[in-house]
Amino acid sequence: MSLDSLIYLLCLGGGFLFLIILALLGHFVDGVEHHDMGGTHAETGASDSHGSGVSVFSPMIIAAFLTGFGAFGYLLSRVEGTRSPAISAPLAAVGAFAFASVIVSALRLVFRKTQSSSESTAASVVGMSATLGTGIPENGVGEIVYVQGGTRYTAPARSEDGKAIATGAPVTVTRLVGSQFFVKPA
């Protein structure tokens, strides 16, 4: 076996082993932080500018590139016309880039479909009806309960005019300042 074929096989085996290890460890390493914003939440994590949750520089994509490079390189080194490493290595890099690009595109598509959510967008709550789960004392803070997209949410609330509103009273959300919802009696 030639040295270049051995290098390709090592890349193929090492990349594939790295993919398996990452897949097994992926259950334990999330990389996503949750931020509570008064009944709604946002997620942040390593991703690209498309917000898809998949970075082209993630270990999984790098391992896929390495695996693709080894596979394409080994196959090309077996063909008479591309046996030379000067030909097979650049072609293997192009093939690995294409392979990793397909993986990134597929994962972005999957994440785009699965990460869409019915979670409330805080700004879209303005104008909605809600109920006070905890009454608002004069110039104080209570808690509203509202349903959006079939999901029940709670959020801290203040009376728009500073007056007290009793628990269970129907209210309308008038504005949002930070994580505080301002309401008025419905």
What is the secondary structure topology, with strand pairs?
Elements: H1 3-25, E1 32-37, E2 40-45, H2 59-78, H3 85-114, E3 129-134, E4 141-148, E5 151-159, E6 170-177, E7 180-185
Parallel strand pairs: 5-7
Antiparallel strand pairs: 1-2, 3-4, 3-6, 4-5, 6-7
Helix pairs in contact: 1-2, 2-3
Keywords:
186 residues; alpha+beta; OB fold (Dihydrolipoamide Acetyltransferase, E2P); 2 domains; five-stranded mixed beta barrel; 3 helices; 39% helix
Structure description:
The termini are far apart. The protein has helices spanning 3-25, 59-78, 85-114, and strands spanning 32-37, 40-45, 129-134, 141-148, 151-159, 170-177, 180-185. The protein is rod-shaped and about 85 Å long. The chain is α+β, with helices and mostly antiparallel strands. It contains three helices and seven strands; from the N terminus they run H-E-E-H-H-E-E-E-E-E.
Strand order, main sheet: write it out.
3-4-5-7-6
| Envelope shape | rod-shaped
Strand content: 25-35%
Number of domains: 2
The gyration radius over C-alpha positions equals 27 Å
